[in-house]
């Protein structure tokens, strides 16, 4: 079997395609959550905390210097505000995934709890037994 045909067999399996779809949807969901946090959740939190913009919060280790256009020195800073935003995004994504998994588990439990119909031969034997019981 050639390398190309092996790769084609691998790539066309259902699991790989499902995974690819999941990655694409996950990427889009990540963008939605980023927008939710940056444009909807963080502005009211900033307003409640007196106008603090979390994304701009940082601890400057070495200030930048651009007074000399030929030798600009970049600022060195730990941007913990951006980390706070990312942490909130992670919590929202983790909660959403938790809810989806919980719903899937609930559906699968309902399917497991439903009694399976007895096989045809068992049902037939049960019917014959019941008929024999009711005979005079």
UniProtKB/TrEMBL annotation:
Q: Which domain of life is it from?
A: Bacteria
Family annotation (SUPFAM superfamilies): Gated mechanosensitive channel
Keyword Electron transport, does the record have it? no
Q: Which InterPro entries match?
A: Mechanosensitive_channel_CS (IPR019823), MS_channel (IPR001185), MSC/AndL (IPR037673), MscL_channel (IPR036019)
What Pfam family is a match for this entry?
A: MscL
How does this protein lie in the membrane?
Multi-pass membrane protein
Q: A cellular component term (GO) from this record?
A: plasma membrane
Name the residues that span the membrane. 16-37, 77-101
Q: What are the protein's UniProt keywords?
A: Cell inner membrane, Cell membrane, Ion channel, Ion transport, Membrane, Transmembrane, Transmembrane helix, Transport
Outline what the protein does: Channel that opens in response to stretch forces in the membrane lipid bilayer. May participate in the regulation of osmotic pressure changes within the cell.
What family, per the record? Belongs to the MscL family.
Subunit details: Homopentamer.
Protein name, entry field: Large-conductance mechanosensitive channel
């Amino acid at each position: 079997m050639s390398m190309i045909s092996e790769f084609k067999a691998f790539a066309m399996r259902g699991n790989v395609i499902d995974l690819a779809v999941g990655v694409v949807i996950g990427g889009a969901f990540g963008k939605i959550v980023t927008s939710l946090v940056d444009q909807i959740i963080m502005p009211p939190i900033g307003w409640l905390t007196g106008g603090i913009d979390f994304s701009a919060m940082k601890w400057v280790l070495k200030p930048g210097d651009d007074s000399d256009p030929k030798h600009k020195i970049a600022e060195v800073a730990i941007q913990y505000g951006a980390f706070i935003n990312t942490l909130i995004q992670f919590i929202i994504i983790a909660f959403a995934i938790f809810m989806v998994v919980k719903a899937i588990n609930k559906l699968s439990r309902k399917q497991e709890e439903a009694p399976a119909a007895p096989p045809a031969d068992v049902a037939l034997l049960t019917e014959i037994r019941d008929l024999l019981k009711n005979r005079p």
